[in-house]
Every structure is written in structure tokens, then in C-alpha cells.
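Full entry
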Amino acid sequence: MDDDPYHALDAVGRSAAPASRGRLDQVHVVIIGSGISGLSTAAELLRAEHEVTVVSAEPISATTSFLAAAVWFPTAAGPADRVGVWSTETFAHLEARAAAGAPGVRMCESLALYRSQPPTPMWSGTVRAFRAADNDELPPGYAFGFGFAVPLVEMPVFLPHLHEEVDAAGARWIRRTVRRLDDVSDLAPDVVVNCAGLRAGELVNDPTIYPIRGQIVRVTNPGLTVSVRDEAHPLGRAYVHPRENDCILGGSLDAEEWDLTPNPALTQSILDRCRDLAPRLAGSRVIETLVGLRPGRSEVRLELDRSSPIPVIHNYGHGGSGITIGYGCAREVATIVDGL
């Protein structure tokens, strides 16, 4: 395979014709977007023996998914009933991938911290080993916590691996900036899947999608192994996710903010709040500060749209829950394609 897996277009801007169909019910699907949603969808459709072309304006290293802290935890996504199904399916999938030794995926012991005892969360039946935290696990200032185990995904490791799996399964890749859905009509798709993240709304003039700015800080790991979070810290939501060679500290959920420039004051605030959760971070060195824009929407849009000559399946608006619901959404897309 070439260093750039996105095959060049020919001189008139068109790709080569799709490969011949291997079975009568095989569908040629063009997926717009190569983040976790696009690649998960491609993997599921290829598993179902459909023909897949992935179109993206950027390499996977430039996607918001590549920057994500990526620990399974339901965050800012709806509708609740469908998110519950998608997140449960995704949990089981990632747990199985961790057990199979997929690069960058592991089950991680976690703590959710509270200043007073909360109700049992709705997701308690999905995670593994859910329990009340012991007193000696609680840092100063915290009266209660829940312990559990969830998948943690190092996206700079796993996303390239998923990309390689999709490539090996026979996907075609095209580097192209798509401004309208009919910009891919020359690829002769039977169906288009809109997984373009924040740009997905622009493609279909959906004004309900908006950016959710997220800033994280990457620091050296002082030996932490437990992921810790406080969604109600006085300085803002806080989480510490230890990875193999670093820790990801966060974070922010700033709706309607487009600025990708790291905010030094916010960086310091993230460091302060995360040191409350894990005091051992006091001696950690800051490696870098990263900013990404999550694709926000009041509810995930996952539906078949027949308003244009080529059917479109929309799969966008996952907010901060891309790694938590992405596989479940991909499975639903595959079910819709199978029913066409």
C-alpha cells in the first residue's frame, strides 16, 4: 500500500469505476468522513460484504477523533433511549476488542467522584464491576465515588489500526473536499453515508449542528493506572485518563466556540482541577495542549433520507460520545443498508 492510502483521482477528477459486484445484494456505499464514526461504519459494511469507498478531505490524524481522550462514558448525546442501545452495543464491542488484544484498546479501572452521594447512574448496569468506592480511594474533598471498569481507547494507536483493518478488508480511499452531497455522485454510489462530523450539517444545510470546543492537556504519567473523573468540579468538568506513555487531562465542553487556539488560563485550570482528583499529577510535565471541535447536536441524527436521487444515511451529531456510541451507530447504519 502507498504511504497515502487515499488513491489519487484521475485527470478529470473522477475515481476509477467501482469494482464488479461479488453478489446480487451487494451495495456500493460511499462514506463521507474518516473519524471514528466513518471508519466504524466502513468496517461494519465491509463485514457485511458491501463495497465501500471512504471519502475524506483530511488524513485520520487531522480528525477530531484522533485527539479524543476516548474513554467509554455517556456524555451530552441524545435521544436517551437510542443512546442507551448504542452505548451498550459499543461497550460490548470495545470490551471484546480489548480481550482480543486490539492495539490501543484496554479495559481500565475507573472512579467517578462526588462531593455528596448521587443516585445510581443509568449506565451502572452496562459497565463492569460497578461498586461504591472505598474511603481510601477518595482524594481530599470527596465524600463518595463509584468504581467500575470501562474501555479506554488510545486513539493515536487504535484509529490507524482501524484504518488498516478497513483498508485490508477492501475499502477504496479518496481524498476530496466535499461541500455538497452530490459532490460524490461521480463515484456511482447506491447509498451515501454522511459521517462528516462537524461539517455534516453544512453538507445538508442543517443549522442544528454546532461546535463543542474541547481543550485537553497531555502530561507525563507519574504512574497512574486508574481513570478518574468529576463531572461537577467547581472549576469545570475534570477527568484524568492514564495511557501507556502519558495522561490526558480535561476538559471543557464549550458550545458554539470555534477557536482552536489553546487557552493558557484554561490549561492552568485543567491542571488545577485534575490535581485535585489525582494529587500525584503535581510533578507531571506538560507535553502539549490540544483543542478539538466536537460535532454537537441536541440529538444524534441517524436516519435514512430519500429526499435526493441517491439515498443518504445520516450518522452525525455525536457530541462528546463518539467513542461511546460510535460502534452501535455503525451497526444501525449497516442494518439500514441491508434493508435497502
Summary: The first strand starts at residue 28 and ends at 32.
